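Page 42, continued from yesterday. The earlier attempt failed because a stray header line got pasted into the input along with the sequence. Redoing it now with the clean sequence only.
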Amino acid sequence: MKKLVIFSLIAIMVAGTVFAQVADGISVSAWGRGAFSPLIIQGKEKSNPDGDKVEGTGGTYVGTGNTFSADPTYQFYVEGANDFIGFGIGITSNWGIGADGPLAHAWTKPFGCDILKLTVGIFNDDTLRGKIGEVNDGFQYFVLPGLLDTLEGMYGGGFDPDDYPFLGCEEDGIFERFGRHYLGNMGFMLSSSPMEGLFLGLRVNTQLFNEGTKASSAYRYMQLGVGYETDAFHFRAQYLGGFGTDKGKSIERAIDNKKLTSTSTPAEFAEYVADFNKPASIALAFAFTGMEGLLVDLGTRIWFPVKHEIDVNKDGITVILPERSVSRGVQVGLGATYDGGDFGVNFRVDTVMGAYMQGRGKDHENVDPVVMVWRLVPFYKLDEVTVGLDLGLMTMGKGKDQNGDKDDDAIGSQLGFGGWVSKDLGNGHIKTGLSYTLPWVHGNKDNKQRDSGVFQIPVILEYSF
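This time it went through. Structure tokens are written below.
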């Protein structure tokens, strides 16, 4: 596989070089980031919930990655276009299909203008995507873990980060792009810009070959978005398909169409039941761009509760599921950047609130705590380098346990801070500094558990051509 990746990279680079020299409309681009820490020190001293000191598993380590996944990521793209048709081909060193993985698509504007555009293949469309992503080129994740990492630690194997792109400290945390949504990022998209500033888009993800994807699933998970942009603001709204309230209508139709019979297996019946892990949602965002040097982008995503209210008795088939409701609540992302010349500041806050899982009646309701991650990065530009600080704070409020009683164990906060220096290298930069993440501090006075802190020396290399 590694040889295949290397040969593919060489082939595309050679082809891209040739195209760039002989063909109009061909462009080549590349982006990549690698990060490492030559020294990571994790303290050993911890305390249990009673406040007694215990020996931890700390030590001294070295780490390599790219700040947002396990491996360094290097991407290479070749694109071509004229007024009527175009293509894009790209690969990554990870060789995995994902939100920023390999891309291969073609598009056409049959009328030679933006009134109609059709795109098909593996692709992303960032026209409406949030305008503010990482606040410090990944350095912030050394200072304080992201919200995704925290939730994954809370829920373990029951948490899939791919289902929560909105929670990361990146552009999708404000407004999600037309891309990967439950069914991967292969599919087709119709878009239109009938007037200046107005954009309409409809995306359907599906397998294009073999047996394809069931129409009911493909269109259930469609993305439908609209945006309007002027010199001063950018408004965006989007519906991201999924499940809502399930009263058994899909099962009834399947019985009528003989797709379900008395001999059908539980797995076959499950195909016609709402999936708690794939709720529908709506998203709204507003960006202010009317002041030089200042950009503010605010987005929210409201998840539809997925409810089971199934009591079907038809043609001798009885299907009864216990009443249950699950909601991911509301998520909010706010980012702001200010560049005043020599001095500037980046700000970001991500919030999750109102998520719950309700059983039969409100007496059996589990409510997740409100989680917030705050990040502030002031910086100052010198002649040769830029220096700055990175401050991060995570807070977690009260929740409810499975019996509906208040759960104070989750209350707490964690603080991280660091200092950094960055040197511009033309088509990239190198950034390094020191960071320290303090232990999690529990807000419940009866819970005296305390983890150890982590010291790191982050080094980040990034290029863009």
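Notes: Helices lie at 2-22, 139-143, 147-155, 215-220, 249-256, 266-270.
Reminder to self: strip header lines before submitting.
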